[in-house]
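hey so i finally got around to running the thing on that chain from the lab meeting. sorry it took forever, my laptop kept dying and i had to restart like 3 times. anyway pasting the input first so we r on the same page abt which one it is
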Amino acid sequence: MVTPPDEETAGQAQYSGPVLFYNDTVIDHFTNPRNVGELPEDETDGYGLVGDPACGDQMKLWVSIRFGRIEKIAFKSYGCPGAIATSSMLTDLAKGKTVAEAGRITDDSEQAFSLARAFIQHGGVSLDAAVSAIIEWYDRVGGDTSPYVGPSTRRGVQALKRGEDPHQTGLWGDTNGAPMRISPVGLLHPGDPMGAIADAATVCIPTHNTNVAISGACAVAAAIAVGMTEGATLDAVIAAGVLGATLGRKQGREWLGPSVARRITLAVEVARGPGDELARLREIYDVIGTSLSVPETVGAAFGVLAMAEGDPKQTAIYAANLSGDADTVGAIACAMAGAYRGIEAFEPAILATLDADEVSAAYNIRALADGLHTLIQNR
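ok and heres what got predicted. didnt touch it at all, straight out
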């Protein structure tokens, strides 16, 4: 409500809406954006487009790479001050870095590592292990202020820290945090999709206890479980995902949203349909979607997995070129591809790069793999 100005406020604008606060760094990048423009086609080694349909923001990015390092980078952005400022900040951060440094392990995979470590410490999958893993990761990344923590995870963890019942803290969690971190559950159930589905539902409870989130997590866990079996076909992996999505939808709090199972099926049809690679990727983006929505993220992940015929490296390339929440799509899709093709599918240079990553070193990924293998053997 706008009130009449008094003598002290006469001449000042009266505003009753929300007040937005930007720090000096954001204001500087908005008023003096760096690296604005676009690179000539003959200098462009990479191009990306990302947009948020909810608010109309859009960013285009061009990069030129020389000797494995980002030599030039430019952007064009349409949107609010925050969108323009973050685009400018991104180019400043990326310029001069090696491709490996710019493409480091994402927070999505980091959450999976945290779950794996907790399962090893607790002797298997349990609600307590899931709670401890999520809180440990949240505190590690400074979750209260980190821009990388999703809305459902933040809401759930904050409630857990207040001492609320974990069976209640995730009743509003409907975004893609559940499927992005669920891969260790699938790994622990080679050839046992039903066991993976049951454990995936348990892991979702603290932060994503809605049927749509559980459906997505169960799809991914079941696909990975089948992918771990000797002689599994890609069609069998995808079918397990559809089964997991169908059964997972029957658990958790009822929530509005499209079918994850049907979105997976449609995404695979698009991926295997007519058109060149770029046209099919555009169709996945336009029709399936790549937002925080679980049906979109999981559907798109199965789509790029099918397009790449299960090859982990090609799956990563397709996911990275999708735009939207591409890192989450990539984390999910590459987890399924890795389980399906095995470590032999990765070039030694890629494995060396991953081993050298600071996040990988902090979690000691190879030790986690050994620990998960021991849990499987002790079943």
